[in-house]
Amino acid sequence: MVFEHGMNCGFSGRNCMLASSAVLRRQQFLIRSLGGYSYHSHQTRMQEVKSMGGNNLEADAENILRAITPTLDPRKHKGQAGKVAVIGGCREYTGAPYFAAISALKIGADLSHVFCTKDAAPVIKGYSPELIVHPILEESYSVRDEDKRTISSKVLAEVDKWMERFDCLVVGPGLGRDPFLLDIVSEILKHARKSNVPIVVDGDGLFLVTSSLDLVSGYPLAVLTPNVNEYKRLVQNVLGCEVNDEDAHEQLLNLAKQIGGVTILRKGKSDLISDGETVKSVSIYGSPRRCGGQGDILSGSVAVFVSWARQLILASDGNFTSSPRNPTVLGCIAASALLRKAASLAFKNNKRSTLTGDIIECLGTSLEDICPVH
User: Fold this and answer.
1) Is 269 annotated as a binding residue?
2) Is position 230 annotated in a ligand binding site?
3) What CATH number is given to the structural domain containing 286?
4) What b-and-e string marks burial along 253-277, b requiring 16 or more CB atoms within 10 Å of the CB?
5) What keywords does the record list, in alphabetical order (predicted)?
C-alpha cells in the first residue's frame, strides 16, 4: 500500500533543472519528432496518476507503475526506452553490478552499461552478452602513486564521453571501498551532477556519500537507497541521533530535507520514500527470503522508472499537476512495487531456494501482470 504523510510534493522548484538537462533535451526532441508518446496514451497515463488518491492505498503503487511505464511503439528506436549505466564492480564484487544492470534491461531499458575495474570486466561480460562493459576503473594496488592523477583524468575523460547519453546512473553496486577508486567515483558523481543526470546511490556508493554529503546534497535528481545499517549511518551522520522507528516518517522527512531535498528510499518491511516534502510507504508483500542482491535489483529498477517518470513529465509540456510530481519519488514507488511483486512470485515458485536470479527472472512477468503490453 502507499501511505502519504505531510505536504504534497511541489515539482515547480525542479523545473529549471529538468529543462536544462542535455539528456532531457534529447528526449524532448525524440518525443516530438518520432511521436514516442501518443496523445491518447499520454492522457490515459496522466489520468492514472491523478487517480492515485482514495482508500485503496495498495492500488496506488500499481497505478503509478502503470502510469509511468511507456507503451511499446514500433516508431521508437533503440535507446528511447532508457539508457542506464552502473558504476561499480571490482575484484571482490562482480555480481552486484550485474544484478543492477541486467534488472534494468529485464524491466525494459534498451541499453545497460557497466563501468568497472579491469579485473571485474571479463567476469561481468561472461555473465551476459547483453551488457556493455567498460573496464576503465582502477584500484590502488594496480596504480603507482605518481600515476594516480594521470589515470584519474583518463578515467573521467572516458566516462564523460558517455555521460550525456545516459538517462540515469547507478553508483555503488559492487564498488568496494578502495580509496583511489572512491576518489575517482567522487569525481564521476560531480560530473553527473553538472550534466543533470539522475543518480541512484546504493551499496558502497552510500558509504562514499555518507562521508562526503556534498556530493549529493541539494541535488534533487539524486536517490539514496539505504538498507537498515546504511540508513543508521546516514541518520547518525546527518541528524546526530539514532534511528527512531516510532516516528519513522517524520525522521525520514527531516533527513531528506537536511540533505537538501534528495530522495531517500529506506528499505525495510515497508519501503519508506521521501524527498523532504512528502513521505510515501510501499507495503506490498514481497518475500520472507532475504537473499543477497535484492537491493541491486532495486537500484537498477529505480534507475529505469526514474527515467520513465521524467519522460512522462517532459511529455506533459508543463501540465503535470498530479501528486506526487517528483520523478524520483514516482520512480522509487514503482520500483519498490515491482520488486516486491517479483520477489513474491519467485518465492512462490522456489520457496527457501529463492535466489536473486530467480527474482530477476520474475521481473518481466510481474510487470506484465500490472501493466500488460497492448
Assistant:
1) yes
2) yes
3) 3.40.1190.20
4) bbbbebbebbbbbbbeebbbbbbbb
5) ATP-binding, Lyase, NAD, NADP, Nucleotide-binding, Phosphoprotein
Q: Is 229 labelled as part of a ligand binding site?
A: yes
ω before 324 within 30° of 0 (cis)? Answer: yes
The three-class DSSP label of residue 177 is coil
The whole domain housing 171 covers 2-370
- Residue 6 counted as an annotated binding residue: no
Q: Is 290 annotated as a binding residue?
A: yes
DSSP 327-360: HHHHHHHHHHHHHHHHHHHHHHHHGGG--HHHHH
Nearest to 100 by CA among 14, 180, 168: 168
Q: 270 labelled as ligand-binding?
A: yes
- Residue 296 labeled ligand binder: yes
228-239 and 248-258 helices, crossing angle to 10°: 60
Cα 315 to Cα 311: distance, rounded to the nearest angstrom: 6
**Residue 286 marked as a ligand binder:** yes
Is 233 annotated in a binding site? The answer is yes
Cβ 113 vs Cβ 162: under 8 Å: yes
What is the Cα–Cα distance from 290 to 341, expressed in whole angstroms?
Answer: 14
Q: What is the pLDDT of residues 302-349, one digit of tens each?
A: 999 999 999 998 887 766 666 678 999 999 999 999 999 999 999 999
Tell me how far apart the 2 most distant CA atoms of the chain are, in Å.
63
**Residue 174, marked binder:** yes
How many residues does the structure list for the chain? 374
9 assigned ligand-binding residue:
no
Q: Is 287 annotated as a binding residue?
A: yes
Q: Is 292 annotated as a binding residue?
A: yes
Does the annotation place 232 within a ligand binding site? yes
The number of folded domains in the chain is: 1
Taking only the tens place, the pLDDT of each residue in 139-176 is 999 999 999 999 999 999 999 999 999 999 999 999 99
Residue 365 burial (CB count, 10 A): 12
Q: Tell me: is residue 293 an annotated ligand-binding position.
A: yes
* pTM beyond 0.90: no
Q: Is 268 annotated as a binding residue?
A: yes
Q: Is 43 annotated as a binding residue?
A: no
Is 271 annotated in some ligand binding site? yes
